[in-house]
Design a protein that fits this description.
This protein is an alpha+beta fold and about 350 residues long. It contains eleven helices and eight strands. The strands form two sheets. It has a four-stranded antiparallel sheet. A four-stranded antiparallel sheet has the order 5-6-7-8, with helices on one face. Strand 7 and strand 8 form a beta hairpin. Helix 1 packs antiparallel against helix 2.
């Protein structure tokens, strides 16, 4: 989830947990604790582009690590605010809840969170909510703003925090039921086409929970079917487009560490293109940056260049940086809205 949402949720949790005892300090520490798992990006700057994306949402997001580090955070905060009527156990609970909800919320998105490290590196991605969803963020934003406004008359601050958290959680619950419904739609659409899929990835598109993108790998092939389903346009049918994976191009290099890690990152949804210097590895789960423009020449949101370097056993891998195209970006929201309404 985006950083602002994590900060707002952490602040609301801080107020709901210890606001009565510690005042607005509880909101501050809740917000800081909620951002702590994402400090792994500071370590990531020392890594290559593949290891960086694997390390992010890794050990700092694991329940095991959060259980270990929360008492240390709690002890530190208790020393900073030694005069407050709050002990280190209470601060520890606040820190744990703020960090745990960060990990929990990330696992509901589609990027993958390694919740159970170091016991397993399986990345949990429930894919019920977009990494940016203003409807989830809005009640938290309104609640925190209300809590930050100085008031002469007293009002129930904890109730305000609880209400904002509950509204956000109710929406998150809606996305879960919505996901189950949409998954059923995609499964039925594939069955109607007589397609047997080895695995399927279905996720909401950016900024909403109305338009969903599904990609299915056809059993026994390296072909993928990509389709969209909107719960707002009233059309129960899903049209699929075929995409070639061209996995055979990397078969001679399947034992290389870079190739194995990229396959893990993409969860098996990828295509390969030959370039002058090596190969282009496209993560198909997130589609192209201008997916609804009808221009198949636009780059994929996540692509990696595998360069062959003489004398090196493995590829030199770096993520392809996306170039800003103001004309392309300016029309993206309108194209998304048209797609939601069923207007291609």
């Amino acid at each position: 989830m985006d950083s602002l949402t994590h900060v707002l949720l952490g602040a609301a949790i801080g107020e709901a947990t210890l606001g009565k005892q510690a005042g607005k300090k509880a909101m501050l520490w809740g917000a800081l604790a909620a951002t702590a798992p994402d400090l792994d990006v500071l370590v990531g700057v020392l890594m290559n582009d593949v290891d960086k994306i694997i390390f992010h949402r890794g050990i700092t997001h694991s329940i095991f690590f959060i259980l270990l580090i929360s008492p240390l955070y709690g002890w530190f905060i208790s020393k900073v605010h030694a005069r407050e009527p709050v002990n280190w156990k209470q601060w520890t609970l606040l820190v744990f809840l703020a960090q745990f909800t960060h990990t929990l919320l990330d696992s509901f998105t589609s990027y993958g969170t390694q919740v159970f490290l170091p016991f397993t590196n399986e990345a949990i991605s429930l894919s019920t909510i977009s990494v940016l969803d203003p409807i989830f963020t809005l009640p938290l934003l309104v609640g925190v703003i209300i809590l930050l406004i100085p008031r002469k008359s007293s009002f129930n601050r904890q109730r305000t925090a609880f209400i904002s958290i509950c509204i956000a959680c109710l929406y998150l619950a809606f996305t879960v039921f919505n996901k189950v419904h949409v998954d059923t739609r995609f499964q039925s659409a594939l069955e109607n086409r007589g397609v047997e899929a080895s695995h399927i990835d279905v996720k909401p598109t950016l900024l909403n929970n109305l338009l969903w993108r599904g990609i299915a790998k056809v059993e026994g092939t390296d072909q993928y079917l990509v389709g969209y389903y909107s719960i707002a346009d009233g059309n129960p049918n899903i049209d699929f487009e075929l995409s070639e994976g061209n996995h055979h191009l990397l078969l001679p290099y399947s034992d290389k560490r870079s190739v194995q890690r990229l396959k893990w990152v993409s969860q098996g949804f990828y295509s390969i293109e030959v370039t002058e210097f090596g190969y282009l590895f496209n993560d198909l789960r997130f589609g192209r940056v201008a997916e609804f423009s009808g221009d198949d020449s636009t780059p994929y949101a996540f692509s990696y260049m595998l360069n062959r370097v003489e004398g090196q056993r493995d590829f030199d891998v770096h993520r392809v940086e996306l170039q800003i195209d103001r004309e392309r970006e300016s029309g993206s929201i309108g194209q998304l809205w048209d797609k939601i309404r069923g207007r291609d």
